[in-house]
Amino acid sequence: MPYYVVVMGTAGSGKTSLTSVLQTYLASHNLDAVVVNLDPAVESLPYKPDVDVRDYVDAREIMRKTGLGPNGALIASIDMLTANIDDIKEEIESYRANYIIIDTPGQMEIFAFRPTGPLVLEALIGDHKVVVLFLTDITYAMRPSSLFSALLLAASTHFRLKYPQINVLTKIDLMPREEVEKILE
Q: Helices 70-81 and 59-66 meet at what angle, rounded to 10?
């Protein structure tokens, strides 16, 4: 039975970078993993997804056809994925991997506030074991109000999805050590 790892978080928090590192790490330890790109608007990736929703729906094409902006096209794309969800799930399961890593879009409204995001994840994951890694850029921790807002978004996502969730501060290596110590006090 596979384990699902859903990589979520605020825009620019390093979701795609972490997904790439997880893919490399698991491969280097001879662990079967499938990487799923769930962002129909991403233009380039530092990893090669095994399953790519852009093969099913393209946010750029939706923008051209409908006149929607980038966020509207992304929301419409995720809504349209529901028509292909069985095919996507079948493609994921065809790999028979032990680990499924799902890289999600940066627009958190899809999962925190709209009904389609949770429905897509529920359909893909089913009753398999899952953990959400919710990433937040360390710069949000510089001000209490920013950190509190990010934590509220993480909590909102957790309550909507009802999956076990680990909140992760990212990019800590890019911050001066004194600043990190000050944040952790």
A: 110
Give pLDDT < 70 ranges for the chain.
none
Q: What is the CATH number of the domain that holds 53?
A: 3.40.50.300
Decide: 59 and 41 in contact? Cβ < 8 Å. yes
* Each residue's pLDDT tens digit, 17-42: 999 999 999 999 999 999 999 999 99
Sign of CA dihedral 103, 75, 123, 49: negative
Overall domain count for the chain? 1
**68 contacts: CB under 8 Å, gap ≥ 6:** 62, 76
Q: How far apart, in Å, are the Cα atoms of 171 and each of 18, 65, 111, 119, 183?
A: 11, 37, 23, 30, 13
Which token pair is 118?
A: 């949770």
Alpha helices for the chain (secondary structure H): 15-28, 59-66, 70-81, 85-94, 109-112, 116-125, 144-161, 177-184
Which residues, other chains included, contact 150 with Cβ-Cβ below 8 Å and sequence gap of 6+? 10, 136, 140
DSSP structure class, residue 30: T
Say if pTM beats, i.e. exceeds, 0.70: yes
CA 114 to chain CA centroid, Å, is 15
Domain that residue 144 falls in: 3-184
Rounded Cα gap, residues 111 and 65, in angstroms = 25
